[in-house]
Write a structure and sequence with these properties.
Number of strands of chain A: 38
Distance between the termini of chain A: 59 Å
Strand order of the largest sheet of chain A: 31-28-34-25-35-36-37
CATH architecture of the largest domain in chain A: Sandwich
Oligomer: homodimer
CATH topology of the largest domain in chain A: Jelly Rolls
Strand content of chain A: 35-45%
Helix content of chain A: 10-25%
Largest interface: A-B, 95 and 95 residues
Number of helices of chain A: 5
């Protein structure tokens, strides 16, 4: 059928009806070609470098690649035990409502594939524009492979816009035949969500030295607890007298069969102030865990599901070993075991690649965002309240070398109410570049991400970190702090060359916050005790949260001067005046890149219509 | 050429390259057909009920009709002295930048028509989607007629969305040949703007009674002053003993040749408190104008350029004459004479159609919005500051009859900073219906507009009027008041049956405003005298307008209780407690109707792709 030919049609001028019928014929021909093409194609495994299991049993396995020239993602979905089809798609935060879905369904006889969307009630609808483009389908011994393509941006208002940062993938399994897409009842499906960074940066791998060695920091064959969530802590140590090395790369080591259970892993270095740390191998929240392990918080390596190996840029490495650095390391593994498997053994961890031939620069980690203080608070019942932390020009002027620093990776961090995190670089009052942005940030998916482009930061630049919080489920204010129900707004940026600046963060001036409490007190008719001896959290908890008090708090944070923490370490500030600093003024904002749409064919082609009027004059 | 025929092509299956070449042939064929069609069509004059001159000389005359089923406007543009083409289009407020334009241009040999847009610098670009669709072009003795069509909404982001309310039309004349659209230099064009209500409501004309009489209130052959702007005042009077009648319709009487000069006209009835009013015929701002004419402010009829006859609904008429009503009328004509014509004589005015056979109901006029008081103020330098006036449930509960009232027309009113006005009806805390909305409101174009649908208002309903102001060109606060540089926010709604409620307006509670002044005083480090003996405008003028003070004023207006004016006349309130009333709570907002786009053809047709996988299970 593919080989059948007909003479090319040459139609110099046609009547309208003929043109219309011809068009329909063309469409029909396209469809036939497509179905034929589907039978012929064979997915190539090597083309999909990124892979995650979608479900905890690993029955659905997603591989993908990213084409930046095409601005599209190619997906390969392996369905190990296909029943009557499945849903795969994306939504804002992993919900099944308002989702953008590719659906494969069978009525028991025939199978269909289509691009669909679910409304706010979860009802499925066929998309008027089909943007999950099926490229192939193939049966193999391990299951059915579906191959499809999706542009980052489709301009269909029902479609999800694929952006940098976290993407919440959802899946659902059809266990019964369905006669149409509309007949699928989403609430009755067996399904779930998986978070990934879909748009992996396209980075070339630096050359690795000859003398590279490896070291595995792995769990010692532990039994994964039969509960949904476990943070496992294991203490490892470097050999005595281990000299300074550079970590130049690391990668995950995941025990075969546990791919769907090992959610994320981090290796922390302990504080050099203590000569020794106790051994420990057990849950991080156990009462048996020695107190001192809380001093093992300096990140050496972090991995989360879906991430690949992490490479340092060839000019830099992360120093470890040597004098002034602790020998003790803490491995933390988050096991996610929603099906409560029992007796699974695990030896996962991280393999460090390091060299004694030190690279030109030590890499450093700097904290941007907000100081951990209760003066920065979020009223209850907010769907998207924004807090902003500043690293001011005055601090970078003082602390950065004239040649600047290069940020190459970033790890965003908030506690449970965090929904979005963005850091922007501003110079001379104008926003210049997004350092890292995640509009679908989840506190349950914090990974160190390589930046698409290295960001150069010079003395006098400003780094502004904005966090968006949702407190709709809370009944009292959420204040800043270390507790899990308190909040943070942090971007750990990885950069080189290392400087003394470890922390460049801000908080509102406490005096202005005090004026706010006074104002609330005077303005509202209720009598609230805003006595100065009461703690800041207590004062926040007693505010009656009407629209005025909410609005004025928002305005206060957008107006009041700040207290800057421009610190060498968490306790030592650079010399200078850091209290009551003016907020950075931003006069030029970066424009949101508009969605790039395929040119919409209008009612007439985009060319001037020639008129036969003769000369006008 | 139109008659040439070719055999229909039947192409059961084609290779891709053949399909592509065929598509191009189809496009070419469409173009040929289109040009042929243009030659044949003849515009019908009767099809375009609405007409305005675009330029002050009347060389460009626009007629149009509105098709609500098609959601499109058909334009007929008469160009009396065509040179090398013209631009016609629409923009937010009549500017030539960011405009949506239909362009006819000639390179001296050939002429072209296209849909274009201008960017923020005024540079022209061809639209990728051609939405001004040329339907015909015809030479006639009086000039060239261009006929074209434009959908209200095109979904091309470069296009103007045609909505209810004012539309700013712009035109520009090409006086030299141009070789391409891009070569047109907008800043060098002779051009201008004209405001019209493009989407006239589609209302059937009520039957008119047999005994209908007419009365013309017209200027007595005045010489139009040779200056750009004149408001002309002329006093007329009803015969002595003229009994009560109902005005059931009125229409403009415009002296032939002055169509482009007579901008708008109103007939006011004088206050019944005065037995007589002096004669006057002269400019309204003349020092010679008797003071007492300021008591002639009750609108009987209002017309603005582009408007047609105004018909009262068949159940109601506007009462005039009879005891308790003044015999004196004031005609006000706004002459707009930018070319400073000298010695033009004019006898324009309004023709009232009235009947002695009174209709079942008197029509009434009610003022909604804000009280004229300085407590409602707009900070300087705001591009869109919103003030809201309320007619509360408590007032409508008390003042409206159980059967409710029917609003059938509305006249929006602000002073010079007004940019948008919207009134929404809310019931049980949920917005139900837009009473009248003008998102491109201009204080220079205030006409009484028939509503598309009559709005029924019942006791307990709320009417919320929102005005948006631009004070970017001002250096001090703009307070509410009667002065031309003070502001108002009013919707005069025309309704029946008439009730005692003449005024249902609000303003912020003065006590809360006082707390705001105190707060500003305490919160800002500057020492400002906010002494209580200083007037409210003086206190507003002395505020340092930083972001905090702006934000908090906005929050205050959105939070503080209001003082209600629920009045029988401007001085007499209905009995009840009207101070410190709570703001109406709105829990459900009306959704902005999304633009209705033609379905966008996607990369694949919107149908499921059948897969030949056999049975899945």
């Amino acid at each position: 059928m593919q080989n059948s030919r007909s003479k090319p049609c040459s139609c110099p001028s046609l009547k309208l009806r003929e043109v219309a019928s011809m068009y329909l014929t063309v469409v029909a021909a396209f469809l036939v070609i497509l179905v034929v093409a589907l039978q012929g194609s064979v997915p190539r495994q090597s083309d999909f470098p990124y892979k995650v299991p979608l479900d905890p049993q690993g029955l659905l396995e997603l591989s993908w690649n990213v084409s930046y020239p095409e601005q599209a993602v190619h997906f390969q979905l392996l369905i190990r035990e296909l029943q009557f089809g499945l849903l795969f798609g994306m939504s804002d935060r992993g919900e099944f409502e308002n989702a953008d879905l590719a659906v494969l369904w069978s009525d028991g006889h025939n199978s269909y594939f289509g691009d669909a969307w679910s409304d706010a009630k979860g009802q499925l609808h066929m998309d008027s524009q089909q943007d999950y483009q099926l490229l192939g389908a193939r049966r193999a011994p391990e299951g059915l492979y579906l191959l499809f393509r999706r542009a980052f941006s489709t301009c269909d208002p029902k479609d999800y816009l694929i952006e940098d940062g976290t993407v919440h993938l959802i899946y659902g399994i059809l266990e019964k035949p369905v006669h149409s897409l509309q007949a699928i009842n989403i609430s009755a499906l067996h399904g779930g969500l998986q978070r990934v960074q879909l748009l992996k940066p396209n980075i070339s791998i630096p050359e690795l030295p000859q003398d590279m060695k490896t070291m595995e920091i792995t769990a010692p064959d532990v039994v994964i607890p039969s509960q949904e969530t476990t943070y496992w802590c294991y203490m490892a140590e470097l050999p005595e007298g281990f000299p300074k090395h550079h970590i130049i790369m690391y990668e995950p080591v995941v025990t075969a069969g546990n791919e769907a259970l090992v959610h994320h892993m981090e290796v922390f270095q302990c504080a050099a102030e203590f000569d020794s740390f106790p051994h420990y191998n057990g849950p991080c929240d156990s009462k048996m865990k020695p107190e001192r392990l809380n001093y093992c918080r300096h990140v050496l390596a972090a991995w989360a599901m879906g991430a690949q190996a992490f490479y340092y840029p060839e000019e830099a490495g992360l120093a470890f070993g040597g004098p002034g650095s602790s020998r003790y390391l803490r491995l933390e593994i988050h096991y996610h075991n929603p099906l409560v498997f029992k007796g699974r053994r695990d030896s996962s961890g991280i393999r460090l690649y390091y060299t004694a031939t030190l690279r030109p620069h030590d890499a450093g980690i700097m904290e941007l965002g907000l100081v951990y203080t209760p003066v920065m608070a979020i009223p209850p019942g907010e769907d998207s309240f924004i807090l902003t932390g500043y690293c001011t020009d005055k601090c970078t002027q003082l602390a950065l070398p004239a040649a600047g620093i290069r940020i190459f990776a970033s790890q965003l961090h908030t506690h449970l109410a965090g929904r979005k995190v963005v850091t922007v670089l501003s110079r001379d009052g104008r926003e210049r570049q997004v350092v890292n942005a995640d509009k679908h940030y989840s506190p349950h998916f914090q990974e160190i991400r390589m930046l698409k482009e290295v960001v150069a930061v010079f003395p006098g630049d400003e780094l502004i970190t904005t966090c968006t919080y949702n407190t709709e489920d809370r009944s009292r204010a959420t204040v800043g702090g270390f507790g899990i129900l308190e909040e943070m707004c942090v971007n750990y940026v990885h950069y080189y060359p290392q400087t003394q600046l470890e922390l460049c963060k801000s908080a509102v001036d406490p005096g202005y916050l005090h004026r706010y409490f006074n104002l609330v007190n005077r303005f509202n008719d209720e009598e609230i005790c805003m006595c100065p001896q009461v703690s800041v959290p207590q004062q926040f908890y007693s505010i009656p949260w009407n629209t005025f008090n909410r609005d004025v708090l928002r305005s206060l944070y957008g107006f009041a001067p700040i207290s800057m923490h421009c610190n060498k370490s968490s306790a030592v500030r650079f010399p200078g005046e850091w209290e009551k600093q003016p907020l950075p003024r931003i006069t030029g904002r970066l424009r949101e890149p508009g969605p790039r749409c395929p040119p919409a064919p209008g009612p007439q082609p985009a060319a001037p219509v020639p008129l036969q009027l003769g000369q006008l004059r």
